[in-house]
């Protein structure tokens, strides 16, 4: 049974049936995080500590995200196992065995590595990044919770996840319940309880001197309350750092062992100054558990030329598409209405690119004008009275030319592709 302070109670209303294989009782939840660099990993660790029990699987959209998540979990003293790339069945079975035994209660994966799960029995899924495709969201549930009766799925929604999450809610026929962040006091109680459980299960050496010190710390006039708090805080900091260092050291030892086993090929690569440790999400990715992509050691490094400074556009997600009879002409009219009276006069050239999809659209605008455009779009309504859903997605380099055609002379079709 979970502690009363866990987040489970706050999301009971999210239980809903799932149309597909796997559990029949699923809680779909989301947790909003701000744009600070550590806001999402801190929220992730808080969620895991507040749940305080069920085996957890974390899905990341990229190997680099998985690396970062694994590091942050270990820094917070949370035991985790990372699997990315194409994983052998034996390695997956070994990882799941560690999960079942409680040795590594948290599993970090990408969608590529999750293909090897073949239906697991996790009760708690965290989407560190919201997948761009709703089918991927469903596949994650089917792969991770096929053997579970109840499954809780939480999406961490940051500023870069808004468009994917908005689209996901339109497709998935389920209620997504907002989870409120735990208070510092609630989180501290759970962390203290976990530390107490760890201490009670630890095999402590018999030492009368330590017993005497512990007794004096708890019940004695030898120290003031301020001094006691200082000692306790010092010991807690030492304990948490030691847990984090032990986990990193264990992973380093495993990595060193794998390095020795790779033999002459690795040594030859090291002598040639290439090695096997280059990591790039787009060209090459090699990890302790698999690989994603490919890169040839025979390729010689190309000379890097300084890139010219290019103008940038901001891509804005619009939560209306063809199904809602939303078109480029209406986008132009809404933008003209939004900019009326502002410091930026309306001009059709402000719309660099418009892309229409079935349920949503994208519009690219100049970066310099994007903030004013985005703020003013929040105030306009469609002709049918609907509020316009608009949010920033990414910053992109403005296209300079396509196959020798100047960007200003190139048209864009309804799918967002260039045509002559």
Write a brief caption for the model.
The chain is of the alpha/beta class.
Question: Which features does this protein show?
Answer:
elongated; 420 residues; Alpha-Beta Plaits; alpha/beta; four-stranded antiparallel sheet; disordered C terminus; Rossmann fold; 17% strand; eight-stranded mixed sheet; disordered N terminus
Give an overview of the whole structure.
With 420 residues, the chain is an alpha/beta fold. Among the domains are: 8-186, 3-Layer(aba) Sandwich (Rossmann fold); 312-419, Alpha-Beta Plaits (2-Layer Sandwich), CATH 3.30.70.330. The protein has 12 helices and 16 strands. The strands form 4 sheets. Strands 1, 2, 3, 4, 5, 6, 7 and 8 form an 8-stranded mixed sheet that branches. The protein has a 4-stranded antiparallel sheet with strand order 10-11-9-12. Strands 13-14 form a two-stranded antiparallel ribbon. A hairpin with a 5-residue loop joins β15 (411-412) and β16. The longest helix has 37 residues, at 225-261. The model is unreliable at 1-20, 253-289, 293-298 and 400-420 (pLDDT under 50).
């Amino acid at each position: 049974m979970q502690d009363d302070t866990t987040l489970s109670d706050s999301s009971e209303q999210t239980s809903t049936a799932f149309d597909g294989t796997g559990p029949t009782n699923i809680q779909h939840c989301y947790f909003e995080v701000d744009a600070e660099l550590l806001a999402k990993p801190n929220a992730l660790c808080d969620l895991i500590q507040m749940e305080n029990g069920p085996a957890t699987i974390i899905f990341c959209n990229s190997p680099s995200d998985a690396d970062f998540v694994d590091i942050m979990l270990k820094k917070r003293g949370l035991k985790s196992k990372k699997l990315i790339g194409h994983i052998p069945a034996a390695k997956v079975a070994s990882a799941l065995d560690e999960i079942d035994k409680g040795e590594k209660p948290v599993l970090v994966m990408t969608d590529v590595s999750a293909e090897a799960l073949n239906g697991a029995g996790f009760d708690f899924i965290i989407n560190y990044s919201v997948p761009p495709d709703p089918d991927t969201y469903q596949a994650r549930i089917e792969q991770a919770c096929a053997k579970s009766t109840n499954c809780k799925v939480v999406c961490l929604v940051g500023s870069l996840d808004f468009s994917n999450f908005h689209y996901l809610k339109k497709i998935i026929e389920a209620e997504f319940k907002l989870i409120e962040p735990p208070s510092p006091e609630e989180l501290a109680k759970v962390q203290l309880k976990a530390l107490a459980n760890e201490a009670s299960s630890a095999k402590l050496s018999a030492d009368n001197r330590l017993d005497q010190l512990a007794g004096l710390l708890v019940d004695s006039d030898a120290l003031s309350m301020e001094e006691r708090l200082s000692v306790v805080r010092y010991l807690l900091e030492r304990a948490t750092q030691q847990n984090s260092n032990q986990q990193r050291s264990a992973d380093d030892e495993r990595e060193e062992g794998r390095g020795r086993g790779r033999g002459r090929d690795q040594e030859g690569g090291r002598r040639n100054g290439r090695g096997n440790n280059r990591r790039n999400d787009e060209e090459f990715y090699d990890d302790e558990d698999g690989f994603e992509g490919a890169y040839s050691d025979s390729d010689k490094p190309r000379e890097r030329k300084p890139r010219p400074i290019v103008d940038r556009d901001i891509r804005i997600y619009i939560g209306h598409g063809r199904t809602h009879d939303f078109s480029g002409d209406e986008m132009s009219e809404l933008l003209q209405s939004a900019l009326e009276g502002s410091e930026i006069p309306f001009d059709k050239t402000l719309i660099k690119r418009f892309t229409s999809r079935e349920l949503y659209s994208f519009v690219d605008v100049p970066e310099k004008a994007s903030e004013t455009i985005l703020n003013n779009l929040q105030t306009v309504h469609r002709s049918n009275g609907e509020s316009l859903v608009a949010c920033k997605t990414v910053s992109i380099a403005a296209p300079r030319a396509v196959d020798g055609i100047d960007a200003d002379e190139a048209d864009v079709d309804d799918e967002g592709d260039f045509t002559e």
